[in-house]
Amino acid sequence: MKQSGIFSNFHAFGKITYQLVTSKVFLLLTLIGNSLIGLSGTLFFFLERAHNPKLTHFIDAIWWSFATATTTGYGDITPVTTAGKILGIVLMLAGTAIFAMYTGLFADAILSTQRFRGHE
To answer: Which CATH architecture has domain 43-110?
Structure first.
């Protein structure tokens, strides 16, 4: 029995999403992004720990790295050294680029499927 309406679209979207998040490109991009966050957090910790009173634990540096890469920027931890600020700039640019790539992957997957389905 063929589904119609919102449920067929939901099922198709679920299938597209599953195929995308298990693809090699998506997994590689995720690995690169998480590595960037981990490495940036580690570097930030070593650059800032002696100078930044808000950086008391390693997890604070990882928190800063996630918030900066995702451009959330809570502002609870900010770099105080020049090297930390430069690292923040690089991480913001890289995070924006990575999330733009995720957006492109999802858009391409959805639009490609719609072309093949003939806009049912």
So the answer is: Orthogonal Bundle (1.10)
